[in-house]
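Design job #97: recover the sequence.
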């Protein structure tokens, strides 16, 4: 079994056990805030189950119907997880507001606090594990699940503090107010996941990654690479797809062009630290390029080099040669 599937399966089993623990804590205490935390755990289970399925799909090889692979399903998985989290938060807020006007008796807060604290510590450890593994495997699904569990751990810690406050003050209204606060925090967490998934489905460019690629190209730049423009980046699960135009001397034959393109591809794949598919379109240079071209001993140069144009985000992503 691939590591991503194994990790998400472990997360799913642990989430089920933690959900059962939280419901036991609720039956001990009848606390509305604990019920809120337990209800969110149901979302954790649904999200982990869908994440497992999405990782299975994203690991499938490219085929004639999916020439870029199946990695986009990870964005859909994050969208479903964010939607479920937001829905759970809304339900929690409505139920908690109801409980403000119609409170119920609360008991055994010490035992309930201990159980919730244990689940919070487990979620904290599991969340960091999923985040670390997700970064190593370039899996957005694992990272989203890890962030969700860390959110759950933070809300559990706040819940424990609130329960202890209720225990010492005997102000039971705190239970519902705490639950409302947790509900809004959960809604915000769901919104952040939704924002990220929609950006991915809309092929929103990862500007930090683009900047990293530009830095690599600047550091290893060759004089034959007169300019690079129209660089675009798309993410398909764990894979990056990049296409761009590179301006080369017009007198290069196809073999020379192929070698330069292959070198750029290898350079980015070596330094970006994740699987990158590079589609490079070669453009011939024009007389207008001479004033910023650093090719030495060029027999067809129409004028001497007058400036050294630095590659940056604005120039490299623009769909035109660097005539400025």
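Job complete. Output follows.
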């Amino acid at each position: 079994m691939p590591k991503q599937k194994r990790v998400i399966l472990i997360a799913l089993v642990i989430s089920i056990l933690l959900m059962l623990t939280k419901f036991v804590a609720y039956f001990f205490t009848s606390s509305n805030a604990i019920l809120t935390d337990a209800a969110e755990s149901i979302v954790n289970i649904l999200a982990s189950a869908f994440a497992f399925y999405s990782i299975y799909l994203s690991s499938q090889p490219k085929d004639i119907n999916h020439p870029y692979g199946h990695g986009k399903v990870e964005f859909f998985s994050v969208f479903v997880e964010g939607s479920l989290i937001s829905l759970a938060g809304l339900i929690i807020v409505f139920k908690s507001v109801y409980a403000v006007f119609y409170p119920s008796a609360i008991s055994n807060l010490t035992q309930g606090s201990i159980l919730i604290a244990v689940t919070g510590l487990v979620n904290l450890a599991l969340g960091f594990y999923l985040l670390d593994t997700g970064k190593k495997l370039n899996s957005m699904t694992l990272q989203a699940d890890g962030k969700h569990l860390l959110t759950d751990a933070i809300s559990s810690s706040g819940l424990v503090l609130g329960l202890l406050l209720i225990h010492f003050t005997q102000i039971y209204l705190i239970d519902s107010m705490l639950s409302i606060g947790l509900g809004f925090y959960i809604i915000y967490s769901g919104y952040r996941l939704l924002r990220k998934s929609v950006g991915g489905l809309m092929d929103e460019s990862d500007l930090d990654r683009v900047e990293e690629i530009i830095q690599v190209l600047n550091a290893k730049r060759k004089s034959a690479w007169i300019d690079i423009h129209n660089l675009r980046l798309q993410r398909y699960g764990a894979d990056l797809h990049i296409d761009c135009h590179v301006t080369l001397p017009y007198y290069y034959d196809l073999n020379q062009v192929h070698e330069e393109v292959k070198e750029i591809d290898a350079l980015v794949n070596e330094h970006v630290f994740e699987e990158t598919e590079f589609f490079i379109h070669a453009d011939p240079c024009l007389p207008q390029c001479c004033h910023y071209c650093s090719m030495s001993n060029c027999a067809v140069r129409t004028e001497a080099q007058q400036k050294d144009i630095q590659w940056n985000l604005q120039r490299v992503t623009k769909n035109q040669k660097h005539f400025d």
